[in-house]
Amino acid sequence: MEIQWPLILFTFFNCLAAGVFFMQGLLTLTGKGKKMQNASCVIAIVALAVGGLSVFFHLQNPLRMLNGFGHITSGITIELIFVIIFALAVILYFLMARRSEEGVAPKWCAVLAVIVSVALPFVTGESYLMAAIPVWNTMLLPLYYVVAMVGLGGFAALIIAGAVKEEDAVKLSAMVALIGALATVLVSIIYAVMISGMGDQYTDMEFYFDPTLPDVAMREVTEVTGAILTGRLAVAFWLGNVVVGGLIPAVLAYLVMAGKISAYKVLLVAVVGFVCLVIGTIVWRVLLYEVAVNALIQFQWALN
């Protein structure tokens, strides 16, 4: 098992698509964001398509996907179903907005947007829960995807609002971005603490020995599961995920929400916050793969 960048990109772009549509739904419910509707729908569909294409690179041969679709309860089938539902909801929202005399989608479309936007990242994360990989086998994984979706959506909405000059959407978008950024940090820290105690779930054997690396010392299982908090991955976690990917975006979102950023600088601040949050979410996904990969290798050698 190695780090699967196509899957990392798939989950990221799913969260981004859901986040943009989620925010547009919230804005519509509060009577804001009229100018943002078209841009939000287009960005959501494009992000969803990019994420879907990433899966094909993961499978190497697109025909392999048909095997997964052979069972209605398989993870890939469930993901496909919710991706289609999400896409249909975006199209419906767009058409209803165009049809409306006021040029605004009806409230029920906004409610539907919020529901499908929360469901998509949750189902995406839930499809990766498996007993064979304890690091992933926790409801904190889909929860993380949901809170990351909220943060990404908030900052993406700030960028769109700044681009189309939709000033009435700035404060709400900044508040959602702040909540999402802080929630992302909190969930990832709780998740990292939980992972640090998962050593016993992999093997009862304390050490392993790789005969192909006779000059490498044996490691304890806890060195792998505890690597995020205090080991070799700690710098990436605390700096990349917590500080850059969470605290900095939270501070920027707060400054915008509190009106301490002038209107003409909101777009620039939103872009910086969005980039920082993207870095954090990607770093966390890579860390999850790193721990899972090394723990599985350790487990295999322990069996040998």
What does this 3D model show about the protein?
This protein is mainly α and 304 residues long. Helix content is 71%, strand content 0%. It is built from 10 helices and no strands. It has helices at 5-29, 37-59, 64-68, 75-99, 107-126, 140-164, 170-196, 221-225, 234-257, 266-303. Helix 1 runs antiparallel to helix 5 (107-126), helix 6 (140-164) runs antiparallel to helix 7 and helix 9 packs antiparallel against helix 10. Mean pLDDT is 85; it is low at 204-209 and 299-304.
Count the DSSP helices.
10
Determine the N-to-C terminus distance. 17 Å
Please compute the radius of gyration using only Cα atoms. 21 Å
Which class do the helix and strand fractions yield?
mainly alpha
Mean pLDDT: 85
The proportion of residues in beta strands is under 5%
Q: How much helix, percentage-wise, in residues?
A: over 70%
H-E string = HHHHHHHHHH
Largest sheet: none
User: What overall form do the CA principal axes indicate?
Assistant: globular
- What's the β-strand tally? 0
- Parts with pLDDT < 50 across at least 5 consecutive residues: 204-209, 299-304
